Amino acid sequence: MKSEQKTADVSFESLLRIFTIPEGPDSTLTKIDEELSRNLNKFLKEHIVAEEKPLREIEKDFSNASIPEQPEFVSDHTQHLLDTLVSHSVHTSAPSFIGHMTSALPYFLMPLSKIMIALNQNLVKIETSKAFTPLERQVLGMLHRLIYSQDDSFYGQWMHSANHSLGAFCSGGTIANITALWVARNNALRAQGDFKGVEKEGLFKAMKHYGYEGLAVLVSERGHYSLKKAADVLGIGQEGLVAVKTDNNNRICPQALQEKIVELKAQRIKPFAVIGVAGTTETGSIDPLTQIAQICQEEECHFHVDAAWGGATLMSNNYRHLLDGVELADSVTIDAHKQLYIPMGAGMVLFKQPDAMKSIEHHAQYILRKGSKDLGSHTLEGSRSGMAMLVYAAMHIISRPGYELLIDQSIEKAKFFANHIEQQADFELVSEPELCLLTYRYVPQSIQEAFTQATESQTEKLNELLNELTMFIQKRQRETGKSFVSRTRLNPERLHHLNTIVFRVVLANPLTSCDILGSVLKEQREIAKQAPKLMAKIEKLAEQIRHS
Amino acid sequence: MKSEQKTADVSFESLLRIFTIPEGPDSTLTKIDEELSRNLNKFLKEHIVAEEKPLREIEKDFSNASIPEQPEFVSDHTQHLLDTLVSHSVHTSAPSFIGHMTSALPYFLMPLSKIMIALNQNLVKIETSKAFTPLERQVLGMLHRLIYSQDDSFYGQWMHSANHSLGAFCSGGTIANITALWVARNNALRAQGDFKGVEKEGLFKAMKHYGYEGLAVLVSERGHYSLKKAADVLGIGQEGLVAVKTDNNNRICPQALQEKIVELKAQRIKPFAVIGVAGTTETGSIDPLTQIAQICQEEECHFHVDAAWGGATLMSNNYRHLLDGVELADSVTIDAHKQLYIPMGAGMVLFKQPDAMKSIEHHAQYILRKGSKDLGSHTLEGSRSGMAMLVYAAMHIISRPGYELLIDQSIEKAKFFANHIEQQADFELVSEPELCLLTYRYVPQSIQEAFTQATESQTEKLNELLNELTMFIQKRQRETGKSFVSRTRLNPERLHHLNTIVFRVVLANPLTSCDILGSVLKEQREIAKQAPKLMAKIEKLAEQIRHS
Predict the structure, then answer these.
(1) How distant is the Cα of B292 from the closest Cα of chain A, in angstroms?
(2) List of chain A residues whose C-beta atoms are within 8 Å of the C-beta of residue B63
(3) Contact B129/A78, CB-based, under 8 Å?
(4) A253 interfacial to chain B (CB closer than 8 Å)
(5) What is the pLDDT of residues B442-486, one digit of tens each?
(6) B194-230, pLDDT tens digit by residue?
(7) Does the distance separating the beta carbons of B409 and A373 come in below 8 Å?
(8) Nearest CA in chain A to B99
């Protein structure tokens, strides 16, 4: 509040000042702005993942629930943020941060983000967004075309049509998936005869009207955890999210899917949607979309594709075939803040049919009036920022061939790394990369041999110990802060479907070099030595197995 | 993609460059950054609301659904954005933009926003947010304390507890309200005996288990439109959102509420939540919260307060009494992007009980593991940005007394404006401001007299014509772009509950002077003259009424 003055009182004059644009390059705020940029650039350049400080220690800096009674100078508070917050945040842009889908950003988006923040548009309605509304509609059109490849006349007719919508821009993939299932549910339980539709009368009456005993959404056992949340919110219940068996490559088995549907129908449970995953979160696998589409068509199910992470692959003419069949989906989720390299908060759901979203359309008196082009009449969220602008800018500045290069290099790097892991005697690749995601674990060579000779119960025991080791290595590596891989739990067939903890790597950052990948393995090998007791226990068991 | 080079090809080297921090103050990107700041400052300083250009014209600039095959220079694209987007966006920060809750921002938030964008943290989990997680928990604690005034030991115990949550940070009030009702629904239909809870088995089985014929959420007829959306999504159905009669001040009638509850129960419909509105969107009215709380306690309903807009009033020791009873609510929605002057995308829902959100808790294998402090286990959204940082910074830089001044001045300005409107012979105040929102319309004096002598059908006819006039004035004023008020439809008792279109004004911007308010009225009076045919029609009818 005191960017331009030196006293520390609260006055209406000083408040007016904070709402006034600073004049000239010598203003205090301009100086703070420049200083902040330098500081952030310094932070972003550091090739570490995080400072080593336990969370409990950091929490001490954020333990006061009282709203301050005394204002702080902008400069002082900025310094405070740099010391307590920035220095203990995660370097998601570090080339050695390869554990999650959050990655480095193209640097040009930093200055461009100012447009979004400074203009403070609200995309829920034209009256607070004007040109941002057609811009967002164009972005949705571009993504729609990327998936469905309709012709110019299609987009000319629907992209800016007040009563239609090619999709919705959301805060993220979870809201996008919920929106898709909301639309699917409402279309499945639509008005009929005296029944006014589930949106009006609710689920209980809908079920009674249609004579169903339950509703189901089917997805592979590798589906994203947020789908359970969606099933809960939408009143279907988590048990209504039916997990379908996957093959050895973590892809849904079409036959198992078909059988499940028959089984559900026999119980008067309506399978109203099937979700194909194009890039599972844990293994990066892509379901056989064309086959799912065929089953959905026969069974009259809504076919949704969760391509939150993998959808960006469509930008590459060399790899888009991996998602063949996505164009048959009724709806598709894509997160621009994943492989389209946009800052956090840019999810999208696209619908094949421009009138699909009719079933969730809503209006109000003061905005979203019928016939208006207000985007809010087709979104789950209300007030929303102009994030679409950053997608628009990146599409123009990077262009499709630029994205193609980014996608291609990440897939090829993942293949390189998988190969590199397989060449190591003491590492084991658990899931092959289809895109740029793979899983593996550390298994000393002597242990690998023991596995081949172990009885069932010995295998279980050995696997348990290895899980402990993997967890230890992952945690210690994260805490050390030089590099970061994540971990998850899989049930690989090769290990008799035992719970198996694995390292999980996502190779999105183009600055991640092969050297860095090599040193991640080296570091893990070294960390294993820091658990001598556990290692001795493992070796001892391996020894027993070999001699039994 | 070409910020640092002059050729126009796509190469992997140029892609690496866009992910690399620019060096020094002479880099092209630094220059673009500075140029952009100057341009935005110029735009923000213009005291107009929007450039006069029809939406259809603007759409032409955003009509290409193809993703470009050719990259653009950052500098060229920035210029393109300034020409086509920025110049045709809405000046939400203009002091004459008084039509919606989106307002000017404290300027210091612009540079601070860089921290959020550049660090690109993902708040769903500690591993991608570290210090941002305790920061967000502190912000939720601060808002919780602002509402519920618990003591230090309460916040010491719960604020950072892994298995508890004082609330959820959301993209906006709609998601906040949905979250509150989701929690309320799941708590009302919790596990019991063999029944595993609505979250697991879904709504249909829950209703059968509990023997209900329907579910209901009660709210005044002035409740926000998003609540209908919430009722739809949650499977309750829009008809399950039961509108309760309001008094002449647009506040819910407690007796009518009580009666409705009895009526619903008699039909075996479970009223599981009542929503009190603290600042209705259309009239800014505050429901009698203490009375609602008492009814909720007796009826064992979840009591939610939608204070998305009005909640910030709690910052003022002079006016927080207007929200008396809010501390009795089980949950409260507050949007920081409304009267807390934070950029778009900062909604929050707070829960009185730290374990209230247990009923929507969810976990996954690779994140949100049990016992982790990952925020994502209690949010509807998944990946989320570090917006909480901006709330934190504003709380410290503005401080509570600073916010108090902002709130007080806006309420007092609204009182001044209401008074000013009443002094005009040709304007009519329709709803008094409780906070900084009021509604009014333009009614030439001779027409006002006619109203007093009109028969019922004449009143209806006259009112219809005045509605047309109000709509004409509002649209023309918006299109002219000098100032902006919104419009809505009310049913005031004084007008026999006829549909009445009114101007709606929200006085949030501290730079909005009394002079500006005066000229808004003057402009509206002038615009009325631009509809001579309509005016003649109105005068003629008034004449008839006077002589009948």
Answers:
(1) 25
(2) 134, 138, 155-156, 159-160
(3) no
(4) no
(5) 999 989 989 889 999 999 999 999 999 999 999 999 988 899 999
(6) 999 999 999 999 999 999 999 999 999 999 999 999 9
(7) no
(8) A127
What is the reported pTM?
Answer: 0.96
Q: Which residues of chain A are within 8 Å of residue B367 when distances are taken between CB atoms?
A: 486
Helix (H) or strand (E) holding B506: strand B500-506
Q: Which CATH number fits domain B121-384: 3.40.640.10, 3.40.50.720, 3.40.50.1110, 3.90.226.10?
A: 3.40.640.10
What's the CATH fold of domain A401-547? Aspartate Aminotransferase, domain 1 (3.90.1150)
Q: What is the SS3 assignment for A331? A: strand
* Structure confidence at residue B4 as a pLDDT band (50, 70, 90): very low
The per-residue pLDDT for range A498-523, each reduced to its tens digit, is: 999 999 999 999 999 999 999 999 99
Query: Region A256-277: what's the mean pLDDT?
Result: 98
The pLDDT, as a whole number, for residue A538 is 95
3-state secondary structure B218-240: EEECCCCCHHHHHHHHCCCCHHH
Looking at the complex, does the CB of residue B318 fall below 8 Å from at least one CB of chain A?
no
User: Nearest by CB to B81, which of A182, A236, A393?
Assistant: A393
CA distance B438 to A197: 37
Question: Which A-chain residues 455-494 have CB contacts (< 8 A) with chain B?
Answer: 478, 484, 486-489
ipTM: 0.95
Evaluate if residue A384 carries a pLDDT over 70: yes
Poorest-pLDDT segment among A8-12, A24-28, A71-75, B491-495: A8-12
Give the domain ranges of chain A.
Answer: 1-89, 165-355, 401-547
| Assigned token pair, A230 | 């969606």
Which one of 3.40.50.880, 3.40.190.10, 3.40.50.2000, 3.40.640.10 gives the CATH number of domain A165-355?
Answer: 3.40.640.10
Euclidean distance between CA atoms A6 and B426, whole angstroms = 47
For residue A41, which residues of chain B lie inside 8 Å, CB to CB? 21-22
Residue A280, CA distances (Å) to A263, A338, A431, B204 in order: 25, 13, 12, 30
| Residue A120 sits at the chain B interface (C-beta within 8 Å) | yes
Cβ neighbours of residue B279 closer than 8 Å, sequence gap 6 or more: B285, B286, B307, B308, B309, B310, B311, B313, B434, B435, B437
